[in-house]
Amino acid sequence: MPSLCQIESQGSEADRGTRTSNSDKGVAKRCVIVADDHQEVLRTAVAALEDEFQIIAQATNGADVLKLVPVLRPEALVLDISMPIVDGMEAALELKTTGSSTNIIFLTVHEDPEFLDAAVSAGAQAYVLKGRLASDLVRAVRSALDGRFFVSPQCKPPDESGSSSNSSAVVWPSRVR
């Protein structure tokens, strides 16, 4: 069954995950699902992304994410880690296990390196702290869609002196998942 993005795309199978918006006069936007259990964060994330990306669905728990992604097949999924029913980490692992090609961008309050490591293991292409949503989220989605790994600066590993440099985000070439 074709996805919503495929149905509305004006291109080939290679264009999966894009949709042409009438208001954009033929400019294809890449399709994104946003999932967070806090309505204000969800609204803020959607507002930050909607000028550049087509938000095709929103979810407030991981169980809904697991229903939406296989059907809509977005290019990117912005996913909170701590959500009810099925948390974001479990949802990401399930999507990875089922072979989903959706790029996962975690949006979280967790600055701990253990969470970052777990996110990478779950297949994340980006890790954005909620406190940096306004400055980092669009860049993180762009990076993930371009095959690069993005991490908000507070999550950057310490340098050799043991202190972390929080001046800029980290963008690496894509990692093998």
What does the model show?
α6 links the parallel β6 (124-129) and β7. The protein has one domain: 3-Layer(aba) Sandwich (Rossmann fold). α2 crosses α6 and α3 runs parallel beside α4. It starts with a helix and ends with a strand. It is globular, with a radius of gyration of 16 Å. The protein is built from 6 helices and 8 strands. Strands 1, 2, 3, 4, 5, 6, 7 and 8 form an 8-stranded mixed beta sheet that branches. The protein has helices at residues 4-8, 39-49, 62-72, 88-97, 113-121, 133-145, and strands at 18-20, 28-35, 53-59, 76-80, 103-108, 124-129, 148-151, 170-173. The protein has 177 residues and is an alpha/beta fold.
Features:
globular; 177 residues; Rossmann fold; 8 strands; 33% helix; alpha/beta
Helix and strand arrangement:
Blueprint (H helix, E strand, L loop, with lengths): L3 H5 L9 E3 L7 E8 L3 H11 L3 E7 L2 H11 L3 E5 L7 H10 L5 E6 L4 H9 L2 E6 L3 H13 L2 E4 L18 E4 L4
Parallel strand pairs: 2-3, 2-4, 4-5, 5-6, 6-7
Antiparallel strand pairs: 1-2, 7-8
Helix pairs in contact: 2-6, 3-4
What is the helix content? 25-40%
Q: What's the CATH C level?
A: Alpha Beta
Give the DSSP E fraction (strand runs of 2 or more residues).
15-25%
Overall pLDDT level? 80
Alpha carbon gyration radius: 16 Å
The helix/strand series, from N terminus to C terminus, equals HEEHEHEHEHEHEE
Beta strand count: 8
Number of domains: 1
CATH architecture: 3-Layer(aba) Sandwich
The number of helical elements comes to 6
CATH fold type: Rossmann fold
The CATH superfamily title? Response regulator
Q: Strand pairing plus helix content: what structural class?
A: alpha/beta
Query: In this structure, how is the largest beta sheet organized?
Result: 8 strands, mixed
Distance between the termini: 27 Å
Overall 3D shape = globular
